[in-house]
Amino acid sequence: MNLKDIYIIFGVSGCGKTTLGRELSTILNIPFYDADNFHPEPNIKKMSEGIPLEDNDRAPWLQVLADRIADWSKEKGAVLACSALKQEYRDKLQSIDHRYIKWIFLEASYETILKRLEARQGHFFKKELLVSQFDTLEQPKQGICINVEQSIEKSITQIKLKLNMSKSQLGLIGLGVMGKSLSKNILSRGFSLSVYNRQVENKEVDIAKHFVDEQPNGSHVLGFDDLSSFVNSLEEPRTIMIMVNAGKPIDLVIESILPLLSKGDCLIDGGNSHYKKTLEREQLVSRLGIHFIGTGVSGGEEGALKGPSIMPGGSKEAYMRSGKFLEAIAARDKNDNSCCTYIGPGGAGHYVKMIHNGIEYGEMQLLAEIYHFLRFYGNKTPEQISDVFESWRINRKDSFLLEITADILRKKEGEEFLIDKILDKAGQKGTGGWSTVSALEIGMPLSTISEAVMARNLSGMKSERETASEIYNLKPSIAIDDEELLNTLEKAFYATSIINHAIGFDLISQASQEYQWNLNLSEIARIWTNGCIIRGHLMEQISVLFKDSDSISLLLLPEIVEILKTDITKLTDIVSIAMRAGYSLPVMSAAANYFLTYTSKQSSANMIQAQRDYFGAHTYQRIDAPLTEYFHTNWKN
To answer: Which of 5-19, 146-160, 295-309 has the lowest mean pLDDT?
Structure first.
């Protein structure tokens, strides 16, 4: 005979067994029973008089319940609300195969239950008996535990999920800063979620459990430290987002989870992985019929929580099925469209994220250079520089990085500016360097981005820089009118930003051709208009400009040409002033040099070719001969 499940909800009186039990029975469409209704009259009389029951009082009552459980399991099943405080009581109720009894313990503090009993009327159980209940209670070894201080809705959701009565729509692995924020974002959009975090003794303990406990009532979330249970809690075909550190940790997660997955499941790597590794991983899992999406996520902790810019790459089939989750949790652009779009096949998503970070490096260094120049050449306070940046923000040059830099410059510790207490030694996670390498691999210039990376590297030579400063003791000076300086600097800032963005988009365009990704530059710019670190007025303009002209470099578009024709001289002026005054502007200098070379009909490269041919017989082409012909000269004669 096929037995039906019996759900026993147990705990001290007043914990909500009846309320939760009735709700669960309605959802499951099976009968509900309250164990109190099966007490013999002598028991009810004793409890009404405030006299605690003894075990010999409970014995016949438990036997009746055990017999009923055996009968109910042969019919439709049932939900039973019963105190079952001792393990021996629960053993007595286990009158059928343990697989068919689902134990649900309602956990509560003494103070919580006391308040409930004081407010309850018309029940024979007296609050004076509560102490004896807690004295009698033995913590259960089996079943699931539900905290009674949350809503009925959240309790029901947890019961359904923990008993595999309801599967989660989405899974997430890794509850670091970004993983936690994305998980909260997912839950806020109404998705049911299972989260997994490894257990590391004395380091990462019960991370998933604590995360679940911290979520508001009504959240559809389950936490696991067992990978198999985590996978089994998900709807099939499964969608699992991996939010662990790039590199070996990603490979270890994939290696561990692959044996647990089924054909058609989808893994999403949301970390800063290298695009070539993403392609390798996709090829590896696809052999097993499993999809893989390499997804760039930009916006930091706040963006992950409120809505980041998301750049997924991989198979279109995988995106059509799992991309709905990514689109739902992404930021929205000014037209309320998701700042998430299918980027392209293979590693395209992580490549585009890598270049996003490269542009970010350039923009950050640009603002750092301007701050440093104004602080030490212009003798302005951080607060005054913040005012300058705020004025640029309202003059159609606003960006997230400009906003946060203005905020940083106002932050104080006591009477001192915090920026003055920070060591001038910049760190990096590698994506800027990856961008430079990727540009070299396909023969593209990356002047501003590469220079920003090198500036960070040079900042790391702190002790050597201090020694060199003492040895050289350079103190050049040059005077310029303050108002004129600020007007010139504003235009130089904007010109550099345009050139930096153009360099990044040119690299994306060339990579698209090189790897046959067919990338849409306008769409990429659009999803960067909100949520991400490089969002700003310029990005919105670029998105519009590329709509009809994404095969043309940004620097050749008429609207940009009009700006740079006048502003480029402001950039070169600032670079000249700063150099003569003894202040380095690596990104601004790189932008000026890039632009002047880019707009030069005749470059110095003919000399490079002659030199190469001289010492290495590398040959050269001539302007007075077909480009298919190559020449070599004996330069000594």
So the answer is: 146-160
Mind spelling out the 3-state secondary structure of 205-254? CCHHHHHHHHCCCCCCEEEECCHHHHHHCECCCCEEEECCCCCHHHHHHH
Looking at the DSSP bridge assignments, the partners of residue 103 are 8
Tokens of 354: 């890598």
Q: What are phi and psi of 141, to 5 degrees?
A: -100, -15
pLDDT band at 167 (very low <50, low <70, confident <90, very high): confident
**Distances 622 to 73, 405, 415, 611, 613 between C-alpha atoms, Å:** 93, 50, 66, 15, 13
DSSP 383-411: HHHHHHHHHHIIIII-BHHHHHHHHHTT-
Number of helices (H) and strands (E), helices first, in the chain? 26, 14
Does the active-site annotation cover 363? no
Q: Name 581's Cβ contacts closer than 8 Å, sequence gap at least 6.
A: 377, 476, 477, 478
Q: pLDDT tens-digit profile of 520-576? A: 999 999 999 999 999 999 999 999 999 988 789 999 999 999 999 999 999 999 999
Give the active site residue among 17, 23, 102, 360.
360
Is there a catalytic annotation at residue 360? Answer: yes
For residue 129, the SS3 value is helix
Q: Residue 11 — φ and ψ, nearest 5°? A: 155, 180
Please pick, among 17, 154, 180, 353, the residue that the annotation labels catalytic: 353
Indicate the pairing of strand 193-196 with strand 144-147: unpaired
Q: The pTM is what?
A: 0.78
